[in-house]
From TrEMBL:
GO molecular function: ATP binding; ATP hydrolysis activity; lyase activity; transmembrane transporter activity
InterPro entries to which the protein is assigned, alphabetical: AAA+_ATPase, ABC_transporter-like_ATP-bd, ABC_transporter-like_CS, ABC_transpr_LolD-like, CP_lyase_PhnL, P-loop_NTPase
Sequence ranges assigned to domain ABC transporter in this UniProt record: 5-226
GO CC annotation: plasma membrane
Species name: Telmatospirillum siberiense
Record Pfam families: ABC_tran
Alphabetic keyword roster: ATP-binding, Lyase, Nucleotide-binding
The protein's name: Phosphonate C-P lyase system protein PhnL
Length: 227
């Protein structure tokens, strides 16, 4: 078995500098390991720190203590202490992230928003667009929308473009923050299929899934956070 993510004794407290330095302790002793081929679900009540932990794993949020080791280029990289260039490399080649909302880039058509992570690792334009088209079809984005920038798309359409983008480059590690929150049953089923396929390709996934059906269909294990 290959450990793709190792988290040891991670702690996070937010400090609200603009509100008198109020401290919000989120978690104090988070430890977990994620192996290749599994989908670990972060589970717990609202405010328990699930999204915060995902953001820490992606290097978007600095923990106060502990370590996060991410498998990259055959070694483990401590993402909380890595320099920004190394974080960019890890995100390009080793770790993808589907956030709750698409950060649409103005004027870039949906097809290229999805193809971009592949272009970033040197995949030729036609191949990258072919993979993007496959994913957009699978996620039922009508072809007439592919050449338009997603800024005007509905919430559900934007989320599906976001999911297609997250799955495009087949990163060995994928973080998913409520990817099915604004989707109907048919699209939820497509996302379940993509996750099951990623597991069968021995990729490692960590996700937050509020939908019971999705959680039960994809989770290999639950990591409970008490808050
Ligand atoms: N950027 C931030 N600055 C300050 N406090 C924050 C910030 N982000 C989250 N928090 C606080 O940290 C706690 C954990 O939030 P987080 O979003 O990680 O929880 P969650 O388990 O994902 O919740 P939910 O299930 O409702 O999405 C909350 O009390 C929240 O108010």
């Amino acid at each position: 078995m290959t450990a793709m993510i190792e988290v040891d004794d991670l702690s996070k407290t937010y400090v609200l500098h603009t509100q008198g330095g109020v401290e919000i302790p989120v978690f104090a002793d988070a430890s977990l390991t994620v192996e290749a081929g599994e989908c670990l679900t972060l589970h717990g009540p609202s405010g328990a720190g699930k999204s915060t932990l995902l953001r820490c794993l992606y290097g978007n949020c600095k923990p106060n203590g502990g370590a996060i080791r991410i498998h990259h280029d055959g070694a483990m990289v401590d993402i909380a202490r890595a320099d920004p260039r190394q974080v960019i490399e890890v995100r390009k080649r080793s770790m993808g992230y589907v956030s709750q909302f698409l950060r649409a880039i103005p004027r870039v058509p949906a097809l290229d928003v999805v193809a971009e992570p592949l272009r970033a690792i040197g995949v030729p334009l036609d191949q990258a667009r072919q993979r993007a088209a496959e994913l957009l079809s699978r996620l039922r984005i009508p072809e007439r929308l592919w050449s338009l920038a997603p800024a005007t798309f509905s919430g559900g359409e934007q989320q599906r473009v976001n999911i297609a983008r997250g799955f495009a480059a087949r990163h060995p590690i994928l973080l998913l923050d409520e990817p099915t929150a604004s989707l109907d049953a048919e699209n939820r089923a497509q996302v379940i299929d993509l996750i099951v396929e990623a597991k069968s390709e021995k990729r490692a996934l960590v996700g937050v899934f509020h939908d019971d059906e999705v959680r039960e269909a994809v989770s290999t294990r639950l990591h409970t956070m008490r808050g």
